[in-house]
Write a structure and sequence with these properties.
Rossmann fold; 60s Ribosomal Protein L30, Chain: A; four-stranded parallel beta sheet; 17 helices; alpha/beta; about 650 residues
Length: about 650
């Protein structure tokens, strides 16, 4: 923007100096121009200003002019071209200032011709803007076919009209398609010209809107010839999906050639300035695969007559600049016919409010500032030494072998496009854009991936059990079995009892326990009984003797080891028949409780323990003898256990 501003300031100074040396003012020349146009006599002059070596723009204007004159010219007046050559340098140097002076001088000389109604030309926006000031002052219609800078129409002049989509529109279009093509992370490089900086900035804005990360960005002078440092920085930064390059022809070609030679093999997307034969000649075969935007779709059926006529006359293919030159002259002729006038201001007014007009490079319609609106864009790929416009259906990721593809060359270019543009990071044959699983590793692909559907690009899962086939050791899992699967894709048996979880009523059976057909553990028919004799307590009390604690500690070790298989522990107190029967029953329960408290305090779970006191009701010997009564005074620990598989069974605890 600052360069545009400086050029405009310089332009005004140069224009003022020029006017001071002219015999007539711009206003006088403008009035004479309208008078000559109104009189309807003599030839009508259209200026053509271009560089000497770029594109087929002038040829496009010439072809259209021949056709217009063959059909009667502008309301019966022959159209005559006044062709001028200006070397439009983009370097920031004395040469640049000289080019600016030459541009303004050319515009002034053309504008002094009062039978001149329009000028088509001037390549770069940075020179088209100063030229537009001259043409505006002199009342001359101005159509620069390649001025893409946003500032060109910001002055709201009456006579200039944009012919090519602006940088913002092209950058947003490219960003949108980069997203559609699967790019998630990109590097952006641009030279420091106004054009390239504006295009790159617009692309970055579009990338953000399309959720593309700009992982790396660098700029360089357009006079730079060695890009090795910039390329090395990119390699150190890490892999990106693609590169966006906003540059001129020479520096762009050098960047691509050096980048490819240094191992940068990701797709490169560039601005429209690279879509020319001059760039193809500069970059050579190493530039194959470059993607650029265009307004000209030479493959469209309704455009083929123009392409054929151009090829027959000039023995070469027309590019987008040829189409722009051709369309501008035909658009001017259309406006003259519809308006029935060659007066510039009347033509300008008609163009601003006319219905959309169809040319070979698409639709034309303008707003009040002369800005082009609703222009359709396409992508083209550098393939086999020329730029090939890609069919619209290709951008929708349809089958590459559709009948709309017109030639073997197109098919080959589409294959190149498919390989370079439709990213397939995991190499599964499914473009990342449609790949639900775009980051599969080689192991994931052993058994193949889904080619279509809502799991496209994901590893196959034949039994739909959520375990991909390459890891699934049970690929025929039933619907019921899918309710619980292990990491191998087999019906899960979480407690390892040989009853799958979907059929197991007891999912927490301890390992090694015998189970029934429901998966529930089987209780051993005979409980294990541990007996603590009466001498373990002080006479007539619940106080444990130290010898009893030692015995209980031994029992605890055993119970801890078999805790998983314990169904329940019943602690039962007994006494002999001497004394009060009721007190004996209370004492027996208190002693059982004392044993339970000891076991619980040493880590045994209280949930499985119950206590009771039987008094003298369950003697094991006669109460008539001291020996028999001693045996009857006891505490029994009755352990109900789960039945274990034979190899896991260990000896029962011994009674002291």
């Amino acid at each position: 923007m600052s360069q545009y501003f400086l050029k405009c300031c310089m332009s005004l100074a140069i224009i003022l100096l020029w006017i001071g040396g002219c015999s007539k003012t711009p206003q006088e020349l403008k009035a004479e121009r309208e008078q000559v146009a109104t009189e309807g006599k003599g030839d009508v002059v259209v200026g053509v200003v271009w560089t000497s070596s770029e594109g087929t723009f002038v040829e496009g204007v010439e072809l259209a002019t021949e056709e217009v004159n063959f059909e009667g010219g502008f309301n019966g007046r022959k159209v005559k071209l006044d062709k001028r050559v200006v070397a439009e340098s983009s370097a920031s140097s004395e040469e640049d200032q000289q080019t600016l002076r030459d541009t303004i001088s050319t515009a002034q000389l053309l504008s002094e011709q009062t039978n001149l109604i329009a000028v088509i030309g001037h390549r770069a926006t940075s020179f088209a803007i100063p030229a537009s000031i001259v043409y505006q002052e002199h009342g001359v219609l101005f159509f620069p076919p390649a001025a893409t800078g946003l500032m060109f129409t910001r002055h709201n002049f009456a006579y200039p009209f944009r012919i090519m989509s602006n940088n913002g529109e092209m950058a947003n279009y490219l960003a949108m398609h980069c997203r559609q093509m699967g790019y998630r992370s990109m590097a952006v490089f641009n030279n420091r010209s106004t054009y390239a900086e504006e295009l790159a900035n617009s692309f970055v804005e579009g990338a953000v809107m399309n959720n593309i990360e700009v992982a790396h960005r660098r700029s360089f002078f357009d006079t730079r010839t060695d890009f090795s440092q910039l390329i090395a920085e990119l390699r150190k930064k890490g892999q990106v999906d693609a590169i966006f390059l906003a540059s001129g022809v020479t520096d762009g070609a050098l960047f691509i050639k050096q980048g490819r030679k240094m191992g940068i093999d990701v797709p490169i997307v560039g601005g429209e300035a690279l879509g020319t034969q001059k760039f193809i000649d500069a970059v050579g075969e190493i530039g194959e695969g470059l993607i650029v935007p265009t307004v000209f779709n030479e493959t469209a059926k309704d455009i083929l007559p123009f392409v054929k006529k151009f090829q027959e006359k000039y023995k070469q293919n027309p590019d987008h600049l040829a189409a722009a030159g051709y369309d501008t002259m035909q658009l001017l002729a259309h406006a003259v016919r519809e308006n029935e006038s060659v007066v510039p201001i009347r033509i300008a007014t008609y163009l601003r409010y006319m219905p959309s007009w169809q040319g070979v490079s698409g639709n034309f319609g303008f707003d009040e500032s002369g800005e082009l609106r609703d222009k359709k864009l396409y992508l083209k790929i550098l393939c086999q030494g020329q730029f090939q416009t890609l069919p619209v259906e290709t951008l929708k990721l349809v089958n590459m072998e559709t009948s709309s593809l017109q030639s073997e060359q197109v098919r080959q270019c589409l294959e190149l496009f498919k390989g370079l543009v439709f990213l397939d990071k995991d190499q599964d044959g499914i473009a990342d854009k449609k790949d639900i699983c775009p980051s599969s590793v080689p192991e994931d692909l052993v058994k193949g991936v889904y080619p279509t559907g809502d799991r496209m690009g994901c590893p196959l899962d034949a039994d739909n059990d959520g375990i991909p086939d390459y890891r699934d050791q049970c690929p025929d899992t039933t619907k019921l079995e899918k309710e619980a699967l292990d990491e191998k894709g087999c019906a899960q048996d979480s407690d390892k009892d040989n009853i799958i979880d979907s059929e197991d009523s007891c999912l927490e059976t301890p390992l090694g326990a015998v189970v029934d057909n429901r998966g529930c553990p089987v209780v051993a028919e005979t409980p294990e009984i541990f007996t603590l004799q009466g001498n373990s307590f002080a006479k007539g009390t619940t106080q444990l003797q130290s010898s009893a604690e030692s015995v209980l500690n031994h029992l605890l070790e055993r119970l801890t080891k078999m805790s998983a298989y314990i169904k329940g522990i019943e602690i039962i107190g007994h006494t002999d028949s001497k004394g009060n029967k009721l007190k004996n029953k209370e004492l027996s329960k208190d002693r059982a409780t004392k044993v339970a408290e000891y076991l619980i305090s040493h880590g045994l779970s209280a949930d499985k323990i119950t206590v009771s006191g039987q008094g003298d009701e369950q003697p094991v010997d006669s109460n008539e003898t001291e020996e028999g009564r001693a045996k009857n005074r006891r505490v029994e620990v009755k352990i109900t256990v789960l039945q274990q598989k034979a190899e896991l069974v260990s000896p029962s605890p011994a009674s002291p």
